[in-house]
Design goal:
Shape: globular
Largest sheet: 8 strands, antiparallel
Strand content: 25-35%
Radius of gyration: 22 Å
Structural class: alpha+beta
Length: 434
Amino acid sequence: MEVGKSTLLGVLTHGETDNGRGRARLDLFRHLHEMKSGRTSSISQEILGFDCAGNVVNYSTMRKTEEICQASSKLITFIDLAGHPKYMKTTVFGLTGQHPDITMLVVSAACGAVGTFHEHFSYALALKVPICLVVNKVDVCSKEQLKKTLIQLQDTLKQMGCDSVPLLIQSEDEAAFAASKIYTLSVVPIFTVSAVSGHNLELIIRFLNLVLPKMTQPEVERREEAPIEFHIDEVYSVPGTGTVVDGYLKEGVIREGDFIKVGPAEDGGYKHVQISTIQRKRASCRWVRPGQVACIASKQLNRDSVRIGMVGLGLDKECVSCMEFIADTYLIYHTTNSITSKFRLTVYINSIRQQAIVVDIEDDVLEPGNNKKVRFRFTRHPEYLSVGAKMLFREGTTKGIGTVTKLVSVGSNAFKVPTINPVLGPDTTKPHSV
């Protein structure tokens, strides 16, 4: 919060240092109240390109996003998330729904790890997203204070159970080494920068130029052979185009003219639609590959029938509509001693964000620091889930993580209270398929 995250991204993507009053962040804000308050409240994206020689391609030399895409051999997409605790739900949704390769946590050199830093760090750690730390505003901080902040960050890493070694980046060789080791989770790079003076910004640029995509080429090729699975995290109505959905392609390849099934709806059903146009990074394209974020438009989609959390599936993909599921769950923190059945919380899985009820718990209670099987039930409508999906859940100061291990049917009994013990007793139900 107020550490200069958006300002730093504005400097990197536009190639001009800030004036000390947040001028560089204005291009990233999406709403008027963000410009007035100086606080990010939504999820915004910007891109940074590199050409074949490793030179930066950004808005300092290009006027349009299409020009940056055409002139670049490598593109970095920045996802700007909110730091204020008021918008924590949006930040958690961005972490789970946007599938970032790396989490860049920004702290102030003068204040250190305060505010929501620990919660953001714990979520990234729980999702096993590689972390790098950026200490901003070193131009308004004494050397003694900067040293204290760096020591505090190193101590925080140990206290939060992070096994990675903190590595202070002071040269381009160290930046290159960090880029080569970031996905092994063995190091946590720490950059000390200033968005006003430009101090050490070249080291971040060097790191971003050399870091590879998290998804390897063999993994991309393997996923391309699978049926389409597209997770929707934004829905728009564009005059003359129709309904446009934005999301992350987990598997398959989407092309213009393809038919997909969009759902699940309130009744668990899916609707067949044809993709008319596709855009990536604000530029038109013909196809989307696994691991990419894109906007797709279809004239068969009705804005009122599409919601965030739905998926677009290939015609040969099983249409799972799940109202209840079982997860291996770890409770990180709770205000009282334990959680029991009937507790309500918000569940985040991929682009899903919905309130759920705890139906049953192994040994009846879930205490902080314990791993147990828990059965959850969505309160509003069924969702598309898959076994192995990572989950975050929170309610107030309560927070925990988990992995989906079993799906429960949405058939005719979807909206009835279960009469069996799903955790301790046998369960022969299957996911509902349309």
